[in-house]
Amino acid sequence: MTRILALLLALLPLGAPARAQEENGRTAGAVLACLRAFPDASAARAALLDAGYRREGSGSGLELLTAGRRNLIAAFGGAGRGALCAAGRDGLRDEAAVAVAQAALDAFAPGQAVRLGPSADGQTIEGWIVATPRGGALVTVSRQINMGGVFRGSLIAVQPAELPQ
């Protein structure tokens, strides 16, 4: 995981404070774990627990993990074709979240993700579709969300999708 974190940090744009840059790298690592295990959320969860994330609880159909000072989160929900694996960092803003997602995609499948752009409703600021060994994955970056004053930031989600023909 340390080599992967170093690679992801190298792919991220410079200019962020050192701690934010490191946390962005860990967030990209969580997204990469989601992609590598896709669509097996249990395997992604196990990889993140091995990387130092801890269980925080579950509710509303989601299981939450955190790392650091509880400012890094990963969420898992659904099952089968509706499985969701998401990651974020408290304070991760829209454009930085897009860069984090792009770094994870570049580490997973360099140059192979197809950019979809923002959603019509404006809640997804960027999206890609990428082939995995077990089907298509939709990677989306949400606008910043606020979770009860505990977390405010953009989330990067990985979920099943049909590959374009």
Describe the protein's architecture and organization.
This protein is of the alpha+beta class and 165 residues long. It has one domain (2-161). Helix content is 33%, strand content 34%. The protein has four helices and ten strands; from the N terminus they run αααββββαββββββ. The protein has helices at residues 2-11, 18-37, 41-50, 94-108, and strands spanning 54-59, 62-67, 72-77, 84-89, 114-115, 124-132, 135-142, 145-147, 151-153, 155-161. The strands form two sheets. Strands 1-2-3-4-10-7-6-5 form an eight-stranded antiparallel β-sheet, covered by helices on one side. Strands 8-9 form a two-stranded antiparallel ribbon. The longest helix is centred in the first third of the chain and has 20 residues, at 18-37. The protein is globular, with a radius of gyration of 14 Å. The N and C termini lie far apart (34 Å).
Key traits:
two-stranded antiparallel ribbon, globular, 165 residues
Brief write-up:
The chain is built from four helices and ten strands, in the order H-H-H-E-E-E-E-H-E-E-E-E-E-E.
Class based on secondary structure composition and strand pairing: alpha+beta
Mean pLDDT across the residues is: 85
Strand content: 25-35%
Domain module tally: 1
Order of helices and strands: HHHEEEEHEEEEEE
Order of strands across the main sheet: 1-2-3-4-10-7-6-5
Q: Tally of extended strands?
A: 10
Radius of gyration: 14 Å
What is the number of helices?
Answer: 4
Give a short account of the largest sheet. 8 strands, antiparallel
Which spans have pLDDT < 50 for at least 5 consecutive residues?
A: 5-12
Terminal residue distance: 34 Å
